[in-house]
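To whoever is on call:

I kicked off a structure prediction for a single chain this morning and the downstream step that reads the tokens threw a length-mismatch warning. I double-checked the sequence; it's 219 residues and nothing unusual in it as far as I can see. Pasting both halves so you can look.
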Amino acid sequence: MNLQKMPGKRQRGTEVDGSGLGRRSQYLTPNQVADRLLVAPVTVRLWASRGLLKSVNTPGGHRRFCVEDVEEFIAKRQQIQNTAEKSPWRLLIIDDDARFARYMSNLIESRVPAVAVDIAVDGFSAGIKCEAMRPDVVTLDLQMPDMDGFSVCRLLRSMFGDQKPRIVALSGFLSAENIKRIQAAGADICLAKTTPPDLLIQELGFPLVRPARPVRARS
């Protein structure tokens, strides 16, 4: 595929001909992908190492990215951005508990329908969605595999600095030590997952624009 068809700045691709890489396919280096996505090369390598952006290795051990895979990744990011731009408020729920994430999403949609809601099931996909979506608020589970809430919180603070979203940490096992740790990592507040809905929405900072109606409790 011709790189000239890709949006953005033109760059020369690398044609790789080696075992497992296909013949004469067009590939990009981490630096070329980073230029297209407007991120640091280390971010591209991190996404690749976690399997979020497909990559291959040359016989010499260098990481390369197929043009088609990069285009697909760009399209997914653009879809997230387009969805977020349609709403005045944006919320990202970061939680590996699918049941609780659905509960949170249903709660917000029923009480504050003007908010665009998305869900990330782990810290690494959260980084991608935060960069694309630019949420106003995130809810953050403390206990997650691979990258726990404390690490995600530090990641968001490093990504956005003073422009970071409001971070509301949520835990099913709240403790004074965890509250202290997560606030030191950059969270604005830490609450129990059993916090009453009205109080939770208040702490998220969203205005209620529709009378409250019952939300199915988690079972």
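Update from on-call: the warning came from a stale cache, not from the record. Cleared it. Sanity check on the structure: Residues 7-76 form a domain with the Multidrug-efflux Transporter Regulator; Chain: A; Domain 2 fold (CATH 1.10.1660.10).
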